[in-house]
Amino acid sequence: MDGLKAIVLVLWVACLAAFALPEHLWWASAGRMLFFGLIVVHAVEFALFLPKLRAAGGSLGHHFVQVMLFGIVHVRSLAAPAR
């Protein structure tokens, strides 16, 4: 796993941890909003990059999970299709 993927994974874990915090803490609400924001942004990225993901081959389900976890970092790691 490269460094960018590790950073995004730590961000996901921090956002998930916000759900275990009491409501009155600032990170609880900020982390929860960021969690749902990441879900929306990564879902949009998946839709936008679907042609590239299909062209990359392999399981589309695997690409979906990777994009939902790592977003553009996963898409950038794919090899450019041959012309």
Task: Summarize the topology.
Elements: H1 3-17, H2 26-48, H3 50-56, H4 60-70, H5 72-77
Helix pairs in contact: 1-2, 2-4
Question: What would you say this structure looks like, in words?
Answer:
The protein is built from 5 helices and no strands. The chain has 83 residues and is an all-alpha fold. The chain has one domain.
Order of helices and strands: HHHHH
Number of domains: 1
Task: Give the biggest sheet.
Answer: none
Distance between the termini: 28 Å
| Mean residue pLDDT | 91
Uncertain segments of ≥5 residues (pLDDT<50)? none
Number of helices: 5
Radius of gyration, in Å, reads: 15 Å
User: In one word, what is the shape?
Assistant: elongated
Query: What portion of residues is helical?
Result: over 70%
Seen as an oligomer or otherwise, the chain set is single chain
Kindly state the number of beta strands: 0
- Broad structural category: mainly alpha
Q: Kindly estimate the percentage of residues that lie in beta strands according to DSSP.
A: under 5%
Concise synopsis of the structure shown:
The chain is mainly α and 83 residues long. 75% of the residues lie in helices and 0% in strands. The protein is elongated, with a radius of gyration of 15 Å.
Keywords for this structure?
single chain, 83 residues, mainly alpha, 5 helices, 75% helix, elongated
